[in-house]
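re: ur question from earlier - yeah i can do the single chain one, its not a big deal. heres the input i used so u can compare w yours
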Amino acid sequence: MAEALYLKGPVIHDFPYPPERRKCPHRALVSLTPAGSCPHLCPMCYARAYPWSQEEPAFYANTPAKLAGELERVEICPPLYISQVTDPLQPVPEIRELTAQVVEVAIRYGVAFHLITKSGEGVLWLLRRVPALLEYPRWWLSLTIEAPPEKQPITSPRASSVWERLRALERCAKAGIFVVVRTDPAIWGLVREEDEIWILDHAREAGARHIISALGHFNRLSFSRLLEALRAAGRKREAEEVARTYKREGEDAGFFRAASILHAPLALRQAFHRFMREEAEARGMTYAACLEMGREWDSPGIPHCEAAPMGRLARKGPSGQFELLPDCFGDCLRHCPDPQRPPCGRPELLRQYPYKLTSLLPQPSPFWP
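and the output i got, formated as C-alpha cells:
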C-alpha cells in the first residue's frame, strides 16, 4: 500500500531550466509523487538517481484539492504536465486514482493537459475511470516506447509490454485523441536504426501523429544501473558499446554542460536526429528532439516540441472556466504572437524562465484591453 503524503508548496510550477538551457515551453508541472516513487524500475531513470529520490510507493494525497485551489486563484494557466518525475498511471491503485482526480479537476476548469506514460493498461483504465476524456478536446497523450519488444524488458522491466502500449495508442488514436510516441532515451549500443524503424512503423500503424526522441543523458548512478541491467540480461557486448558511446567530452553541449552528465557525442546526436526526423516525416509524422538539440532539428511548423495543437496557454473567463488562447503555446522564448501586446497579457512571461506563480494571478495590465 502506498504511503499518503501531503504536498506543502504550490502544485503549479514551471520547468526549472533558465533561458540559456531552455527548449521546453512554459508548463504547469503537477507533482503526484516524490521523485523515483515508481515500480517500473527503469534502470536509466533520472528521477530514481536523484539524491533525494525514494523508491517506496508514495503519493501526495492533497494534490487534487491544492490544484483546484490554485486554478481558482490564477487567471493564466499553461498546459498541465501531470507528474513529471514518475509515471502517473503506474500500477499502484492510490496513484492511479489520484491521477484520475487530477484529470477531473483539469476537465472541470477547462485547462489543457497531457500525460506521459509507459502503462498501456493504465491508459485504458483511465479512459474507463474518466469517460469524459473521450470527448474532452484539450488533452493529449505521450506513450514512451523506448525499445522493441525483445529489448524492452531491459529498459522498462516492470512497465507495460510494448504490445500493450501500442494497443492503448490505437484505442486513443481511434477516439481522436492526439497521441505522441517517445522513443527516448534511445540507448545507442543497445538499440540501433532497425529498432527505431520498428518503433516508427508500429507507431504510425497504431495512429501516432508525432515522434519525440533523444539519445539521453545520465549521471553516474543512472548510468551504472543501466550497465548493470545490460550485463544481468546477458548483453555484455551491448554494455561495452553503450559504455564507449556515452562519455564526457569538452564540446559545448548546450543543456549538457555539467561535468557529471554523460551523453552521446555531438556528431552521433546530429546523425541520429537527422535520421529520425527523415524517417518520421517519411511516414507522415512530425518529429522533435528532446532537450539535447535545438529547435532547428525539429520538423518545421510544429508549435512546440510536443506538437499538440491544444497545448496552449489558457485565460480564465468570467464564468471561471479557462479558454485556450489562439496561437499562444507558452514557448515565449521563440514564439509570441505579439511580443508588444502578448495575448496572455503577461509580458513578464517573455523573460521569466522559470515563471513565478504570481505572474499567473489576476493583475492590472496595460496589455489587456
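The chain has one domain: 3-325. not sure if urs matches, ping me
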